[in-house]
Each structure stands twice: as C-alpha cells, then as structure tokens.
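Quick sanity check, Ion channel:
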Amino acid sequence: MANQMRVRFRLELWNGLKVVWPILSALLLIMAALGILVARLDGWPLGDGLYFAFVSGLTIGYGDLVPKSPLARTLAIAIGFTGILLTGLVAAVGVQALNAALRGTES
C-alpha cells in the first residue's frame, strides 16, 4: 500500500507540475530578470545577481550580497514576493498531489 501511494503521489505531482509549469516558468524568468537588473544597478557580476535573486527569492537570504541603491532594494522586495509566490505554488501542488494520492489509495 505504501509503495502504491508513493507511485500515485509522484504521478499526481508530475501531473500538477505539468499544469502549472507555465506559471512556474514565468516566475523563474521574472526572478532571473530582476536579479540581472539588481546586478546591473549595483555593479555586480551577472552570476552574483542571479545568485542573489534565487537565494533571496527562495527565502534563504545569506546576506553576503546586499543591494545598495534604492531601486535595487526595491527590486529585491519584488524578488522576495516573487519567491513567495513560487514557493507557495510548489507547496500547493505538492499538497494537492498528496491529497489525490491518499484519495486514490483508499479504495
């Protein structure tokens, strides 16, 4: 039964991610673009801007890179909100997949 539920969960998770993939892609592209803008504004290398965007957006936020200009700080807030949307969407798909897997193995 446990193995059947794992298989069902993976299938439901995959199906859910296929449905929201365009939204996930858009959020990832927005985060990357905002990171590039922050890098340009503060004179960071491109890789540092992308690193900052994804570390900040996924709420890890090590603090090793800090935007200095007011516009870059504003963009950092937008990166944070985008990351919250991304995390929430992935969590929602995971919860939905778990619920569907549980319903499918009850019978």
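Posting the structure with no commentary besides this: The two ends are 11 Å apart (CA to CA).
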